[in-house]
Amino acid sequence: MSETKPLGGKVVLVTGAGGGIGRAIALEAAKAGAAVVVNDIGASLDGKRESSAAAEQTVTEIEKLGGKAVANGDDVSIQEGAQAMVRQATDSFGRLDAVVNNAGILRDCFFHKMTYEDFDAVVKVHLYGTFNVSRAAADVMREQGSGSLIHMTSTSGLIGNLAQANYSAAKLGIAALSKSIALDLQRWNIRSNCIAPFAWSRMTSSIKVDSPEQEARVNRMKEMAPEKIAPIALYLASDEGADTTGQIFAVRNNEIFLMSQPRPVRSVHRGEGWDLDSVRSHAIPALRSSYVPLDVSADAFSWDPV
């Protein structure tokens, strides 16, 4: 990989790039030589459209650095919006080499209080948004015979979290979607990977603080800059990342993790088959020691970031 312009000649579309992680990746991609389509609808944290200025501000920053970028205000949750942003990439720059599916909203609340509308809105932006943009990009990338799709998942989905059933369901769905994309599109040299980012951003700033432990956790997160996520994203978008697909990474300050994916943990067999009594007396006692605990992301990442 060239030390100067590892993404020279490439075109990268970053959704939700008006701020936070998306903005950081867009800026770093431009510094690495890519032409960038900066997508952001300028929505509030819960998804209500406010202003398109955020995308334009990121474009201005890129141009001040001497890079090339265009702003896009289409909605990832709408199929036509995803198609329009991909079309803008090819109209503006002639191709599309990488997509970073970063756009997201939050509507956190406990499951027994969650409305259909709050579940639907979050899944539409995160899961449907990832599908819509990836599906539109896939047509371009298949014609090119190459491409990289990079999706933001979350340990809230991979491990678990309180009061985020909508967000967790969408983020775990994205991990499964990414694996299917990787399998289906490998014949065209299109790869698909996930990143679970830990970083202080507009979304994490909404975390409720109602205990000293949560306050300490939030203070630790404030130390994790969005720029820390960019290097792995740039690698996955680059030619050097061509042999990496179907993987899930997590980035936590200066740590990069390769995350596990579900596989059988333990099994029991009974030649004559199972009935309720034998499941109760034999199967469950044998399997119980391997149960996955009812933990949350903070339990799995219990040490201070380094």
From TrEMBL:
Transmembrane domains' residue ranges: none
Q: Which of UniProt's keywords are assigned here?
A: Plasmid
The answer to whether the entry has keyword Lipid metabolism is no
Q: List residues of the Ketoreductase domain.
A: 10-206
Q: Which domain of life is it from?
A: Bacteria
* Database matches in SUPFAM superfamilies: NAD(P)-binding Rossmann-fold domains
Q: Which Pfam families match?
A: adh_short (PF00106)
The record's comment on protein family reads: Belongs to the short-chain dehydrogenases/reductases (SDR) family.
Q: What is this protein called?
A: SDR family oxidoreductase
